[in-house]
C-alpha cells in the first residue's frame, strides 16, 4: 500500500504549512510519498494550492521524484511535465478539477473521495466518507499516519 501525504500533512490539516518545501521534506523523511500542488509560471515550477507561492527546489525533484505525486494546478504545469516525459523523465503527474477520477501519468486512478473501492486506485482523503480502501493501491490523506500499519 502506497501511503501519500496530502500536501505534506501527516497527522491533520495544517493549511499554513501545506506545500511548503520544508513541510514536504519532513513527510518524505518519514518515509511517505507526497502529493503536492505544482504550477508553472514565469519559466519555473512553483508550489502552492491556491496560487504559485513557493519555489520548487530542484533537489526535491532530483532526489525524490519517484515519491512525488504532482498535482498540476495550471495547464502550463501539465504541459511542461509532458515535455519532460518525452525526453525520458519519469514523473508521476496529473490534472483534475471536479472529476470523479483521473489517470496519473503512471497509470494510477486518482479517485475523488467517496469513489472507492476501485482496483489500482489512489483513495484520496478516504476519511471524509469512510471509504473502503481494501482494493486500492494507495491512500492520499491529511492523516496518513493513521493508515500506517
What does it look like?
Strand 5 (68-72), helix 3 (75-86) and strand 6 form a beta-alpha-beta unit. The protein has helices at residues 21-29, 58-64, 75-86, and strands spanning 2-6, 33-41, 44-47, 54-55, 68-72, 92-94, 101-103, 109-111, 121-124, 138-141. The chain has 149 residues and is an alpha/beta fold. It has one domain (2-147). The chain starts with a strand and ends in an 8-residue tail after the last strand. It has three helices and ten strands.
Number of helices: 3
Beta-strand level of the residues, as a percent range?
Answer: 25-35%
Q: SSE string, helix = H, strand = E?
A: EHEEEHEHEEEEE
Distance between the termini: 10 Å
Low-pLDDT runs of 5+ residues are none
Helices and strands: which structural class?
alpha/beta
Can you summarize this structure?
The protein has 149 residues and is α/β, with parallel strands linked by helices. The protein has helices at residues 21-29, 58-64, 75-86, and strands at residues 2-6, 33-41, 44-47, 54-55, 68-72, 92-94, 101-103, 109-111, 121-124, 138-141.
Question: How are the elements arranged and paired?
Answer:
Layout lengths: L1 E5 L14 H9 L3 E9 L2 E4 L6 E2 L2 H7 L3 E5 L2 H12 L5 E3 L6 E3 L5 E3 L9 E4 L13 E4 L8
Labels describing this entry:
149 residues; alpha/beta; 10-stranded mixed beta sheet; 3 helices; 19% helix
Amino acid at each position: 500500500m502506497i501511503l501519500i501525504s496530502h500536501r505534506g500533512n501527516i497527522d491533520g490539516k495544517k493549511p499554513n504549512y501545506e506545500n511548503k518545501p520544508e513541510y514536504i521534506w519532513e513527510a518524505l523523511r518519514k518515509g511517505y510519498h507526497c502529493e503536492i500542488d505544482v504550477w508553472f509560471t514565469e519559466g519555473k515550477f512553483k508550489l502552492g494550492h491556491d496560487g504559485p507561492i513557493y519555489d520548487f527546489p530542484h533537489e526535491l525533484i532530483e532526489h525524490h521524484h519517484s515519491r512525488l505525486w504532482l498535482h498540476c494546478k495550471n495547464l502550463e504545469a501539465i504541459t511542461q511535465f509532458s515535455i519532460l516525459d518525452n525526453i525520458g523523465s519519469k514523473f508521476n503527474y496529473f490534472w483534475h478539477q471536479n472529476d470523479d477520477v483521473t489517470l496519473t501519468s503512471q497509470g494510477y486512478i486518482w479517485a475523488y473521495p467517496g469513489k472507492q473501492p476501485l482496483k489500482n486506485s489512489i483513495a484520496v482523503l478516504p476519511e471524509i466518507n469512510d471509504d473502503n480502501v481494501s482494493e486500492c493501491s494507495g491512500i492520499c490523506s491529511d492523516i496518513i499516519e493513521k493508515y500506517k500499519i
